[in-house]
Design brief:
Blueprint: H1 3-23, E1 58-63, E2 66-71, H2 79-82, E3 87-90, E4 98-99, E5 105-112, E6 116-123, E7 137-140, E8 154-157, E9 164-165, E10 168-173, E11 177-183, H3 189-192, H4 201-205, E12 215-220, E13 228-229, E14 232-233, E15 250-256
Parallel strand pairs: 1-8, 3-4, 5-12
Antiparallel strand pairs: 1-2, 2-3, 5-6, 6-11, 7-10, 8-9, 10-11, 12-15, 13-14
Bound molecules: 2-acetamido-2-deoxy-beta-D-glucopyranose (4 copies).
One 2-acetamido-2-deoxy-beta-D-glucopyranose binds next to loops.
Protein name: Carbohydrate-binding module family 13 protein
Signal peptide: 1-21
Keywords: Signal
Length: 293
Amino acid sequence: MPYASSTIFASLVLVLGYVHARHIDAYTPQSAPYQTWPGQSGYNQCGTSYNQSSECQNVYLNNVQDFCLWAPPYPGSTIGDTEQVEVAWCMQSGYGTRLIPDGTITGAHLVVTPDYVQITGVGNLTNINILNNDQGGEFDYYGAAGGGYPVGGLVFSSAFGQLQQVDTWTSFISYDLFCFRACKPSVNSSTLCQYAYSVMGCEWNMPANYSAGVFEECVGDSGQPMGVYGTSTFSQGQPTTPAPLPMPPSSSCTFYSTITNGQGVLPSGAASTRATEVPITPAFRSRPYILSV
Ligand SMILES: *[C@@H]1O[C@H](CO)[C@@H](O)[C@H](O)[C@H]1NC(C)=O
Ligand SMILES: *[C@@H]1O[C@H](CO)[C@@H](O)[C@H](O)[C@H]1NC(C)=O
Ligand SMILES: *[C@@H]1O[C@H](CO)[C@@H](O)[C@H](O)[C@H]1NC(C)=O
Ligand SMILES: *[C@@H]1O[C@H](CO)[C@@H](O)[C@H](O)[C@H]1NC(C)=O
C-alpha cells in the first residue's frame, strides 16, 4: 500500500477502534490502550498503585468501600470548565488513580439492582479539587462527540460478577453531592443511564438515599427510566419540571462505620500541575444543575 493510503487505512482502523471501544464492553484495565479517544487529556494505562498527580481516567464502581468519582485534575476551575479533562479519584489504591482523602466522603449509599450499580452520597468534595459552592455538572459516556465527558474516560465494575468495562453510565457531582450509575449491558441500559437531563442534578436523575453519616451497600429494585412518566416523556427545557420519580426500594443492606484508605486529607497535596487540556467548545461548557426541584 502506498504510504498515503496506508496512513489513511491506519487512521481508519484507529477511528473504528475507538468507535468499537465505545460500543463493546471490551477493555480490562490491563488491556486498555494508553488512550482510548483522540484529544484525551489523561490516560487509561494506569498501573496498580496510586498517585495524587495521576491523570488516570479509569473509574471503578465495585462496592461502597471501593468506588471512584470524576473530579478535576487541578483546583480553581468549575466542573463545567473541566468536564472534558476530569480524572479518577478512588477510595482504594491499586488502580493507578488518585485517592479520595479520608474524611472527604461523609455518606455513601451503593445499590446493585438487576440493571445497574449506583452510588449516591455527600461529602466535602473541595478535597478533590471541586470549587466550594460549585453546583457542578454531569458526566456521561457520550459527551459531545462519542468520546464521553471526560473524554476517554472508562468505567469498570465488578458489581455484576467479574470485573468488566461498563460502557453506559451517567454521573453528577457538585461541591457537596455525588451520584454515579453504571448500567449493566442490556436493551434497557440507555434509558436507565439516560444522559439527556444534564441540568437536573442527582436527586432528580437518581432518586436514592443521600444521607450523611451512613455508609451502606444494598440490593435494590431498578428505578424507572429518568424523564419517563407513563406515556409522557419530559424534555429538559420544558416549562414545567415534573417531580423526581419515586426512590426504588432497597434491602439486604450492609453498613460500615466509615470508608477509608489511609490517605489523610490533603487539600494542597491534592493539587497538581495543570494538565494538558483539550480545547473546550463553548457550546458544551458549563452545564450547571439544580440540586432539588
Ligand atoms: C505520578 O503521576 C504523574 C503524572 O502521570 C507522573 O508524572 C509521576 O511520575 C507519577 N509519580 C510516581 C511516583 O509514579
Ligand atoms: C472542606 O474541606 C476544606 C479543606 O479541608 C475545609 O477548609 C472546609 O472548611 C471544609 N468544608 C466544610 C463544609 O466542612
Ligand atoms: C427492559 O425493560 C422492560 C420494561 O421495563 C422490561 O420488561 C424488560 O424485562 C427489560 N429487559 C431487560 C433485558 O432488562
Ligand atoms: C437512608 O438510609 C438510612 C440507612 O438505611 C436510613 O436510616 C434513612 O432513613 C434513609 N434515608 C432516606 C431518606 O430514605
